[in-house]
Design goal:
414 residues, alpha+beta, seven-stranded antiparallel β-sheet, two-stranded antiparallel ribbon, 14 helices, 9 strands, globular, heme biosynthesis
Length: 414
Amino acid sequence: MASRRAYTRFLAQLKPRSQLRCPRASNLSAPSSRPHSTTATPAPSRSSFSGRRIQFIAIAGALTATILYKMAADIPVALDSPTLAERDSQLKREDGVTERSPMRLRMEAFIKEQQQEIVRALEAVDGKKFRQDEWARKEGGGGLTCVLQDGNVFEKAGVGISVVYGTLPKKAIMSMRANHKNIVAEGEDIPDSLEFFAAGLSLVVHPHNPMAPTAHMNCRYFETAKPDGTSGAWWFGGGSDLTPSYLFDEDAIHFHKTLKDVCDAHDKEYYPKFKKWCDEYFFNKHRNEARGVGGIFFDDLDETVSDKENSFAFVKDCLRSFIPAYVPLVEKRKDMPFTEQEKEWQAIRRGKYVEFNLVHDRGTAFGLNTPGARVESILMSLPVHASWKYMYEPEPKSREQRLVDVLREPKEWV
């Protein structure tokens, strides 16, 4: 306000603009009542008056800028609230990630650490290095996709993480509410949109040797955000399953026992429940057979375990179990002899794997329908080679037929 009053006084003291103009020629020659000086005073030139005008404009402009700056500082300006991605970026810059950080930041840090652990373990088996591609989303977040293709042991192995920020439209909120009643509090109207965060690690390993099984592992965390950035609805999901082309019972038993030990350490009811869920989920309904010999699968883990910390601890143990559950099986089978016919059967089984991922898998569908999706990362799970033969059926009582029989009637392995 003081600057504004000073500017007003300054304008009042200035002469009228007409007095700053050059006098007319007739006035310059008219007699004056004042005593004449013995030395004639030269008439002001046009350039001198132009200079005074420029000086006035510069002074006025500077004062105006000062006043506007003062007014901008004094008057609060309404700005858009920071997005969830911006809030998290600031938190990581200021405090890093600690045990007191929001769960979404702790989950992100954990999957990044485990990704590199798994990559190192698989590189030790294969002898070749993974290609690591980092990518970003303009909506917020990004990921790191690690792929080893045409290796010594693995035809294709992919270990990818993604951290996704976005906004759920009203239609998506209504759809998700069918499985997650707490996404909108009971009695509240469904909002037009909700910010969300999703982070996960997904891996698939396809060995060259048809005697070595394919394996899949996934863990993920999802939450919505309230307007102030605090967590709204949340849930964990994940699981691990084994897909052999040739069935070795001892391999299936080892894999399932490792997962059961993890489950039992948290809740004795987990393994039978999640094993059944896996058998039902990884099932090609159009062929009436399972994708593989199963493992565990769980989703929407907010009601099964109401405490977020317990859920997180369980998910971490599941992810850490992948290396001891799977790597010994590859080490045992990777150098076994095989025939061209057995390799052909592997390609046919991988065709069934592709069918499930593209037709039934919810994670693939969610990824492909997310704005700004990185398709290469989403489809890294697909094998390099797959085959489809019209009306193909294995020979009766063959090893191939035994696998199909088990896939149609899932077994209890432990």
